[in-house]
Amino acid sequence: MRAAATLTPEPLAQGVWGVEGGSVPWRGGVAMPLRTVVIELPSGELWVHAPGLLTQDLRDWLEERGRVAHLVLPYAPDLPHLTDWQAAYPAARVWRGAEVKTAAWCQQIKPLVLEGAETEVVFLHQASRSAILSRLIIAVETAPLAVWMRPLIWLAGIDESDGKPPLGLAGRLGGRKAVGDLVEQMLDWGPERLILTHGRCYMRDASGEVKRAMRRLMRDRLWDRALNEARRG
Predict the structure, then answer these.
(1) Average pLDDT for residues 201-217, to the nearest whole number?
(2) Strands 93-96 and 109-115
(3) Where residue 6 falls among pLDDT bands split at 50, 70, 90?
(4) Which residues, listed in sequence order, are joined to residue 122 by a DSSP beta bridge?
(5) Which of 77, 102, 82, 101 is nearest to 92 (CA)?
(6) Tens of pLDDT, residues 68-103
(7) Which class for 206: exposed (0-12), middle (13-18), buried (19 or more C-beta within 10 A)?
(8) Which of 126, 114, 109 is nearest to 191 (CA)?
(9) Rounded distance, CA 166 to CA 156, Å?
């Protein structure tokens, strides 16, 4: 969570921006840093993932880019500013969970949906080869956080030094096999960058970073995949 009170959109790829500065409540009173992702669709409509704090400056910037038409919600945590976006853009469609599979924009932003006790969706912006992740990998930069918050992030194993899934997520998403299947599909996409909702982004070697983050969860699968890739090479 950087000290960016103006919520200045940062270009991440062609037609893709990240907006940092907001946060959402997490365990133990920790304010989890939030990245809102804005993508310009070929139609001129704007696709907004994890809508966070909405300021007048951000509204002006969005107005210059196009029409906010799609508000896409990660499953968790709750987004306290969603009502502000709905009030500002009453015609925008709110997409939750598996509903995204029916969206017309799936041709440009491909979803992978995993449903267990909870639901997780990973997106690929096909034009820029950018994968957008909600909780599948979290890599929080701890330096800007209050000192008392840092140990909680370290103990959860989701600090930027070794970003990975939070503890217990695989069980809530249907188990290791289900998550492994989703990760395999994501690797088959061949993403070039990972854009995280919570924490730093990985702007190169996206597949390598996914394998690193998932090494404990799917060690045998990744070993087999490496052997197959070596044989093909």
Answers:
(1) 90
(2) unpaired
(3) low
(4) 112
(5) 82
(6) 999 999 876 678 899 999 999 999 999 998 899 999
(7) buried
(8) 126
(9) 6
Contacts of 128 (CB under 8 A, 6+ apart): 13, 14, 15, 16, 192, 193
Q: How far apart (Å, rounded) are the C-alpha atoms in residues 9 and 37?
A: 9
What are the chain's domains? 10-227 (3.60.15.10)
Q: 32 and 38 in contact (C-beta within 8 Å)?
A: no
Q: Which two tokens stand for residue 185?
A: 């599909």
pTM for the full model? 0.85
CA dihedral 111, 229, 137, 106 (to 10 degrees): -10
Instruction: Grade residue 1 by pLDDT with cuts at 50, 70 and 90.
Output: very low
Handedness of CA 177, 108, 213, 207 (dihedral sign): positive
pLDDT digits (tens, 9 = 90+) for 38-50: 999 999 999 999 9
Nearest alpha carbon to residue 149 among 158, 136, 138:
158
